[in-house]
Amino acid sequence: MKKILIANRGEIAIRVMKTAKKMGIKTVAVYSEADRNAPHVRFADEAVYIGEAPSNKSYLVGDRIIDEAKKLNVDAIHPGYGFLSENANFAEQVEKSGIIFIGPKSDAIRIMGSKLAAKEAVKSYNIPMVPGVDRAVTDPKEAIEIAKKIGFPILIKASAGGGGKGMRTVENETDLEIQMKRAISEAISAFGDGSVFVEKYISSPRHIEIQILADSFGNTLHFFERECSIQRRHQKVIEEAPSSILTPEIRTKMGEAAIKVAKSCNYIGAGTVEFLMDADLNFYFLEMNTRLQVEHPVTELITGFDLVELQIKIARGEKLLIKQEDLKINGHALELRVYAEDSMNNFLPSVGKLSVYQLPVGKGIRVDNGFEAGMDIPIYYDPMLSKLITYGKTRKEAIELMIDAIDNYKIVGAKTTLPFGKFVCNHEAFRSGNFDTHFVKNYYSAAKLQKEIEAEAKIAASVALKLYLDEQKLLKTPLT
Ligand code: MV4
To answer: In terms of domains, do 196 and 210 share one?
Structure first.
């Protein structure tokens, strides 16, 4: 494998290129009209234009990307996350073109892209599942019968769903029919597939996912968990590894379950198996993401492995030389997604020109970044500027490092989620580890954040005043 095309943009394109360069592999960037001068383009050995700014005219046009890859004699395509990364048809087209897709086979992507197909695949593997049904339900009467069996509240979910779309909670029999109709029509308009199914609603779960890697020789390993419960509207904001609530026994059980999920679809490459965990630490398989995830760095920091390097090695047909027993958790890592969104104003997108853009540096700090000073934030794409990642011997150390790093991250020109990240890091519920997926809803408001910022400004002012007075005293003290 001599040359890789990265079918993505921003921080993840740069992240993948860094490892390719380390391995002596040439890199090709793709770019849209809006990204002509983007850092990922300059970072690559070669770059190729793929169309207009809107992603459906550039980063989502698989055929064009494959054509350009062929012209440039590319050996492999890395899709990153988002865009074409979980598009089974794209993976299949890449396979057919004779280029290596750095990811799982298209069949595995297809199976795991459908929640019902995924349930079907894992059926015989004895994986803990949320009580419910594993087939499409269309008749509200049937749904009522199921709900009576498993008990209210229930959750109606779209098989093709993602990001909470086509999902409805139902508290009682009266609401069921209308909510079911809504879920079905939402699923049809969002995914073109109206299949829905019914599960018991786990009311205050934690979202815990397991990183797995599988080679093409049947070796499948798990790289422990990531805790991703701190999210708002299905958008993760802070992730960490390890989770502070897992016991070694549960960790092993979840890891083994995740490996079975991967085996159920003959998975090859890096993947993530998502679980819900209830207050009694019961865990349930939710879905599998067949890509490298945004939050993969926290796993890299606690295991010491470069996941992109392992992806590339697996893609070029190498055997995983690591054994499960060799993998150990070392220290604690946190990741804050820095979005150009105004945490004081309902997280509205905040685009503009980054007149000042200065990253924090130091031991235990990693920033996976796609921006630089002077750049306009394009309106066409995901507004994530970077991922601020900290690593310490303990969770507390990682949290303190994160707070310092946030203070040393200087951005002028756009509002970001940095102040929100600091709010979370200072919050008792987060610090104690006692939180679930409702953290933001339960504890966060712009008013509370405003209060904290004012309190901090007062402290800063008194410190400055004391320094000033001390200095005056010194100046007035005659030298002896
Ligand atoms: C659930 C659930 C409670 N009970 N399933 C949200 C997105 C989709 N991937 C699955 N999701 C959920 N499924 C049952 N049976 C609660 C959620 C959920 C959630 C899950 C993970 C992280 C954040 C979440 C926020 C709201 C709801």
So the answer is: no
194 and 212 inside one domain = no
Domains contained in the chain, number: 4
Q: Among the atoms of ligand 1, which is closest to the Cα of residue 132? A: 15
β-pair partners for 77: 5, 101
DSSP-H helix ranges across 135-247: 140-150, 173-191
Do 280 and 181 fall within a single domain?
A: no
Tracing tokens 């059926």 back to the chain, one arrives at: 123
Q: Decide whether any atom of ligand 1 lies within 6 Å of the 441 Cβ.
A: no
- Sign for the CA dihedral angle at 299, 301, 307, 308 comes to positive
Residues 328 and 235 in one domain: yes
Closest to 344 measured CA to CA, from 457, 424, 450 = 450
Task: Point out the ligand 1 atom lying closest to the alpha carbon of residue 228.
Answer: 22
Q: What angle do CA 288, 235, 302 make, to 5 degrees?
A: 65
415 vs 345: CA distance, rounded Å: 10
Tokens 């879905």 identify what position?
287
CATH code of 66's domain? 3.40.50.20
20 and 137 assigned to the same domain: no
pLDDT of residue 314: 98
With the most atoms of ligand 1 within 8 angstroms of its CB, the residue from 146, 207, 235, 438 to mutate is: 207
Q: Which helix (H) or strand (E) holds 159?
A: none
Does residue 238 sit in the same domain as residue 140? no
CATH number of the domain bearing residue 147: 3.30.1490.20
476 and 427 in one domain?
A: no
**CA 273 to ligand 1 center in whole angstroms:** 14
Q: Which residues of the chain have pLDDT under 50?
A: none
Whole-model pTM?
0.95
| CA-angle at 114, arms to 112 and 118, nearest 5° | 50
Cis peptide before 140 (omega within 30 of 0): no
Calculate ∠ Cα 422-420-414, nearest 5°.
115
* Domain hosting residue 66, numbered range: 3-102
How confident is the model over 286-319, as pLDDT tens digits? 999 999 999 999 999 999 999 999 999 999 999 9
Same domain, 156 and 35: no
- For residue 289, give Cα distances in angstroms to 3, 209, 212, 236: 26, 10, 10, 14
